[in-house]
Specification:
The complex is a heterodimer.
Chain A (H helix, E strand, L loop, with lengths): L2 H16 L5 H11 L7 H27 L6 H25 L4 H25 L6 H18 L3 H20 L6 H19 L4 H20 L8 H20 L10 H17 L23 H23 L6 H6 L1 H14 L4 H25 L3 H20 L5 H30 L1
Helix pairs in contact in A: 1-2, 3-5, 4-5, 5-6, 6-7, 6-8, 7-8, 7-9, 8-9, 9-10, 10-11, 10-12, 10-14, 11-15, 14-15, 15-16, 16-17
Chain B lengths: L2 H32 L1 E6 L13 E3 L6 E3 L11 E8 L5 E7 L8 E10 L2 E5 L4 E3 L5 H11 L7 E8 L2 E9 L2 E2 H10 L10
Antiparallel strand pairs in B: 1-9, 2-8, 3-7, 4-5, 4-6, 6-7, 9-10, 10-11
The chains are: A mainly alpha, B alpha+beta.
């Protein structure tokens, strides 16, 4: 039960006892069962938010002010001003470590200010000496220098910014035809910090923020770091990645009070239907498999091996999580995870014989249909309007795409859209009636 | 962990954070003070490349060199490029090698792409930072004066042990700052039009 609901229950208990609904002893047993629930300290959250926002604005504003009158300053003055924000931020962060290490607001805001100052100082020095633009190198140096702050200032926002920074670096490096395998070592630096915060309370704002950035960055970096030597291997890799997210989210974050506090499940819930929709078209299956293998040129030869290692690791992780969780999970969770199995089967089918494309497309159409129906059923069973609408959205997306890439006339398409719309409205109305009936 | 240990570790991290920009400053300052000066004639840039809002995108006429027979360089590989001065005193790139040459007339540059023995280089001076209010005028002046009919724009570069630092951008024989001040204050002095 969420903290909000426990607090509501505790408020109700004296009234329930006085009306004779519960005995004093039962009320006490309920208190013991749910434990202490401190009210959310809104002042603390506000202080934390405004502290971070303030640090961000002060950092950005001072850099803009410096840049504005840059032309009139001599080189030594520019150099001094380039280093000044960094030194000020370091003094502030040092004082925080010494005096305010227990304060999340101080740690987060000074760490963010220092992180921005590092980037600003390097950029301003670069501008002073007209250093050629190598954005990838700048990002890499910036992130390496910021990494210790994640631990020394106990900060999740820095960890999240760091993950975004290294993902941006990986994208930039690949755009410059470099390999970006270093991403995984850089990401491994931040993972223990996320694990440490999640261990205390996985649904608090700081670990949730870290997990959201990790999940989203992994979605980007997984594809970016691949060599793509074996065409179509990304189908297995991304399917397994989202399946792992789905199962891990269902196993370790099952009791999250709200949707946004389940980043892994949320990302997979969006990612899996989107992937299925893509796989229901012909283009992902064109010219895939070992018959179209392209040995990497320009990069290091062993770079192609990484794709196979990644695919194998993600598939193994998926099987491990599936075996571990299959008995505990609800019906729709392994169903979402099953995309990995289907992707592997279809990949080998199409790679062996391109005529298998039609079968793969049909299978993914059916799978998406099953996902949509299962989501609607789960939503109705749990009286959750959001889940029902999400299921209907999956079904609508499937119907709309199939109607657009078929040769059906406008009248048939129009009727189909009306039927889908009526389905949406009817299900919502029915569920609202049911909820209303339940509360009365 | 004890607070003093964390503070000690933080001080070490802060020191490293300071060392990186300071090392950049020292390397550039030393090159600007003791490096050998070369003048590179600039070349026009494609308008689509001139996207920097706070800098002028630069291209030099000299940006290719020849590799010795039998030597190949990959794209983005670092090479050493020998510099010679022509009769007008402008720098010309003669040849590229994979090993560090003798003397002080060479720069380190990355290979952009190769065509036979000719390597096209990513020159280590591709932008001149300037106030964003002055940048459009500077970019326009650069384009007009780098045109093949004008050809009186050039950059000065200081080179020390292969490390090159852009010193200044000259338009019509004057540093860009001075040129822009004069053209903006005097109505009679206007940038020449492109023929």
């Amino acid at each position: 039960m969420s903290k909000k609901h426990v607090l509501w229950l505790y408020q109700e208990l004296p009234d329930l006892v006085s009306r004779g609904v519960l005995t004093g002893e039962t009320a006490e047993r309920l208190r013991r069962h749910y434990g202490e629930a401190e009210p959310i300290n809104k002042r603390r959250i506000a202080f934390l938010t405004f502290g971070i926002l303030g640090a961000f604005l002060v950092g950005s504003g001072s850099i803009l002010l410096l840049g504005h009158s840059w032309e009139n300053l001599s080189r030594p003055v520019r150099v001094f001003l380039s280093l000044a924000p960094l030194v000020i931020a370091q003094v502030l962060a040092g004082w925080t470590v010494w005096r305010r290490w227990e304060s999340a607001a101080w740690c987060e805001s000074t760490a963010v200010f220092l992180m921005f100052s590092i980037g600003a100082s390097i950029t301003l020095v670069g501008q002073t000496y007209h250093v050629p633009g190598d954005f990838a190198q700048l990002l890499l140096i910036w992130m390496l220098l910021s990494a210790p702050l994640i631990y020394l200032l106990n900060t999740s926002l820095c960890a999240a910014s760091y993950l975004v920074g290294i993902t941006l670096w990986a994208c930039t490096a690949r755009m410059q035809s470099q390999d970006a395998l270093l991403f995984w070592i850089l990401a491994a630096v931040a993972i223990p910090r996320l694990w440490m915060t999640a261990r205390e309370n996985p649904y608090a704002i700081r670990p949730v923020l870290g997990l959201w950035s990790l999940a989203l960055c992994l979605c980007v970096a997984t594809g970016v770091t691949m060599a793509h030597a074996l065409p179509g291997l990304w189908i297995i890799v991304y399917s397994s990645l989202f399946a792992v997210f789905c199962l891990a989210g269902s196993i370790w974050f099952l009791e999250a009070p709200s949707f946004w506090q389940r980043p892994l499940a949320a990302v997979s819930a969006v990612g899996i239907p989107v992937l299925c929709l893509m796989f229901s078209f012909e283009w992902p299956w064109e010219e895939i498999g070992w018959h179209h293998y392209l040995p990497p040129s320009g990069y290091r030869r062993w770079f192609a091996l990484y794709d196979f290692v990644l695919a194998a690791a993600l598939t193994t992780a998926f099987i491990f999580l599936l075996v571990r969780s299959i008995r505990k999970l609800q019906m729709h969770q392994p169903l979402f995870g099953a995309i990995a199995i289907l992707a592997v089967i279809c990949y080998f089918l199409v790679a062996a014989d391109p005529r298998g494309t039609a079968i793969a497309r049909v299978l993914f159409n059916l799978y998406l249909l099953a996902l949509g129906l299962a989501t609607v059923v789960v939503g109705i069973r749990n009286n959750h309007l959001g889940t029902v609408n999400f299921g209907l959205l999956i079904l609508s997306a499937l119907i709309v795409t199939r109607f657009f890439d078929s040769d059906l006339g406008f009248v048939t398409r129009g009727v189909a859209f009306i039927v889908v719309g009526i389905g949406f409205l009817t299900t919502n109305l029915m569920l609202l009636q049911r909820t209303k009936g339940g509360t009365q | 962990m004890k607070k003093t240990v964390i503070l000690g570790l933080f001080c070490c991290a802060a020191l490293v954070q300071l060392v990186v920009p300071i090392q950049m400053i020292l390397q550039h300052e030393q090159t600007l003070r003791t490096g050998r000066q070369f003048r590179f004639r600039t070349a026009p840039v494609e308008p689509r490349d001139a996207l920097g809002s706070q800098y002028v995108v630069l291209r030099t006429e000299a940006n290719t060199a020849s590799l010795p027979v039998g030597v190949k360089a990959e794209d983005r590989q670092k090479v050493y490029v020998l510099i010679e001065e022509d009769k007008g005193g402008f720098a010309q790139l003669t040849s590229a090698t994979l090993t560090r040459p003798q003397g002080d007339a060479y720069i380190k540059a990355k290979v952009s792409y190769s065509r036979g023995r000719t390597v096209h280089l990513e020159m280590p001076f591709d932008r001149y930072y300037i106030n964003e209010q002055l940048a459009p005028a500077a970019e326009q002046a650069y384009r007009q004066h780098s045109h093949r009919d004008a050809r009186d724009a050039y950059i000065t570069v200081r080179v020390r042990s292969g490390f090159a630092v852009l010193e200044d951008l000259y338009i019509g024989g004057k540093p860009i700052g001075e040129f822009l001040r004069e053209t903006s204050s005097s109505p009679t002095l206007s940038p020449p039009s492109v023929r």
